[in-house]
């Protein structure tokens, strides 16, 4: 089920655009009708009730794990039994998935080990936001959960435009993450709604980046940096780059020096994130001392950066781990 399917059905039953707008706001904001809410024509009421019930069946919480620092990790079951993850972040954010599984195959990510199973519809993406509102007021939506948004581009952009119109969340608090895709870049440059952009970097060297993310479409890091500068100018806020640090893999002196070189004159933020440890994986987090040393060198090199702990570390939820554990339980 997708947004346009619901809207077409309501229109065919006599709804006006004002009725559709209120229908969507009541759902995504979890608002009950008031005296000011336009009354639906009698011919529309049955269809509206049907779709309200269908929207409530899009996803259900089957497991949740919380920690004070990481927020709440949810495992959601979709209508066909597939499982996805969402993370309710501290300070009013939610991180949503865009696919069941992922085709990129990041070597440090549990989700990538399962490959791509299917795309999420725009309403399945938005249902994660609606569910998160049951826990807290949502002021920020990060498209950085399971899946690569550029591989489900139409539905991801549809959900972003929906949130921009109906949720009251500002463009800069709609954060779109991607490994880098020219189709996505062209689409958001042409769009009126310009979400904040977070680019998955992980290495400043093209060959090493390809090793860490085997199935990405080749795009030179230099081209990504050039687009980031152009997009920051168009959107009015800096692009973020994600650098997942792996001990002995992408945390060496040469990498640090190349970051400093590439960041000269850039309006961009570098997020340093130690890798999530996955059972059976050879990849380890750098020590805290090593991370702090890298951060100090980058600051001296005039790199604007944030050093943050990997999300969901305390609840074994990063990179699809909680979903994988739930799948094992269901298979027993």
Automatic annotation (TrEMBL):
Cited SUPFAM superfamilies: Radical SAM enzymes (SSF102114)
Domain Radical SAM core as annotated: residue spans: 88-308
One GO location term (cellular component): cytoplasm
Keywords from the named record: 4Fe-4S, Cytoplasm, Disulfide bond, Iron, Iron-sulfur, Metal-binding, Methyltransferase, S-adenosyl-L-methionine, Transferase
Pfam families: Radical_SAM
Cytoplasm is among the record's keywords: yes
Cofactors that this protein relies on: [4Fe-4S] cluster
A single MF term (Gene Ontology): 4 iron, 4 sulfur cluster binding
GO process annotations (BP): rRNA base methylation; tRNA methylation
InterPro entries in alphabetical order: Aldolase_TIM (IPR013785), Methyltransferase_A (IPR040072), rRNA_lsu_MTrfase_RlmN/Cfr (IPR004383), rSAM (IPR007197), rSAM_sf (IPR058240)
Subcellular location: Cytoplasm
Homology family: Belongs to the radical SAM superfamily. RlmN family.
Name of the featured protein: Radical SAM protein
